[in-house]
Specification:
Blueprint: H1 24-53, H2 74-86, H3 89-94, H4 100-133, H5 139-164, H6 175-198, E1 204-205, H7 208-240, H8 271-274, H9 276-300, H10 310-336, H11 341-366, E2 369-370
Parallel strand pairs: 1-2
Helix pairs in contact: 1-4, 1-6, 1-11, 4-5, 5-6, 6-7, 6-11, 7-9, 7-11, 9-10, 10-11
Length: about 375
């Protein structure tokens, strides 16, 4: 009996596993591989957040997927890299007095970010080829993993497109491209996690009332997820526009609940994208909706209809509510402290952990099946 089956009768499982034709040891190897990819993506998000917060993202002005593996060696190569950086707006407009030692600091953060991206590529590709050669991958599982590789390739391309936006006439990357880059990282993490859990059978829900409860929870989790994605997008907008350095009070902004400059741009819809006041207000307001839904789900997990798998649902509901509260607290603290690097990095990392908790619960209720 597989480890996942301990303590449960065989008939407790309903939804078949992805790659059900594979033996349990093979599915276990695939699971660990995918979870390692999710963990590396989490690390990538943290390093990428610090890279942005230290304004290091534009320090390497060339995209060299192969030669870029090696940093400059010797004074001459470092000076050459620094001279290349000097040709672009960030140096000319923001850092004209930068020294070579200061440049090395921001270079190494961006270098670590790009090197980790290459490591993730190797961790995905080499085992994939081995699993493919040994017959692990075929049918829906193979197609799912090809989608994952497509997302990875798109992420690499988007990373450079984002950097390129800050090398023309502005000393920062376009916040829309930053948001796309961040959301792709969330998508890669999500596909890794979802596929890893998909490799094991789903759960059977016994009782009509329990099944209806599961269906309702699934609907509200979808609503929560949509709001969470929008919140993450606006978090990227706040970061790209440096909106966290404005209106550093809570809960009010500029003495009111809605800042007076919230709709100053024309046409009005442009405020949702480019207005610092509006972007920050939305990023501050959406967590209230997320908290309300999390509280509702937390209460629902203690209803009689949740019994059967109630222990699992109560744990998920508690984890989701706790993650929302911690994330909101980190966001408020980051704002009030004028965005210190360590606190802002924790806030971004917690966003992915919250996403992971939500995704795990959504997967659980999505693959549940009613008993006959």
């Amino acid at each position: 009996m597989n480890r996942i089956d301990r303590g449960q009768p065989p008939e407790a499982h309903a939804a078949p596993a992805l790659g059900a034709e594979l033996s349990a040891p093979r599915r276990r190897r695939l699971t660990w591989w995918l979870l390692s990819g999710a963990l590396l993506t989490f690390a990538m998000l943290v390093v990428g957040g610090i890279t942005r917060l230290t304004q290091s993202g534009l320090s390497i002005v060339e995209w060299a997927p192969l030669m870029g593996v090696f940093p400059p060696v010797g004074e001459a190569q470092w000076q050459e890299a620094f001279d290349a950086y000097k040709r672009f707006p960030e140096y000319q407009q923001l850092r004209p007095d930068m020294t070579l030692a200061e440049y090395r600091f921001i270079f190494y953060w961006e270098y670590a970010h790009r090197l980790l991206a290459r490591v993730i590529g190797v961790v995905f590709l080499v085992p994939f080829l081995l699993f493919l050669a040994r017959g692990y991958l075929r049918g829906p599982l193979l197609r799912r993993l090809l989608v994952l590789f497509g997302l990875g390739a798109l992420q690499g391309l988007m990373g450079w497109v984002m950097v390129a936006s800050g090398l023309v006439d502005r000393p920062s990357v376009a916040h829309e491209r930053l948001a796309a880059h961040l959301l792709l990282a969330f998508a890669i993490f999500g596909v890794c996690l979802w596929t890893a859990v998909d490799l094991w059978p789903g759960i059977l829900v016994r009782g009509r009332s329990a099944w209806r409860w599961t269906a309702r929870v699934r609907v509200w989790l979808v609503v929560f997820g949509v709001l969470l994605v929008v919140q993450v997008m606006y978090g990227a907008f706040v970061a790209g526009l440096d909106a966290g350095l404005a209106f550093n009070t809570w809960p009010r902004m500029a003495g009111g609940w809605l800042p007076p400059a919230a709709w100053r741009l024309e046409p009005p819809l442009r405020n949702l994208l480019d207005n610092i006041a509006t972007v920050q207000w939305l990023h501050r307001t959406l967590p209230a909706l997320l908290l309300l839904i999390a509280l509702g789900l937390f209460g629902a997990a203690w209803r009689p209809a949740a019994r059967g798998n109630g222990g699992r649902h109560r744990a998920m509901a508690t984890a989701l509510l706790a993650a929302v509260l911690v994330q909101a607290g980190l966001g408020i603290a980051t704002l009030l402290a004028f965005v210190p690097v360590w606190l802002a990095a924790m806030h971004q990392a917690m966003a992915l952990l919250l996403f992971g908790v939500w995704l795990a619960w959504l997967h659980d209720v999505s693959r549940a099946r009613p008993a006959a």
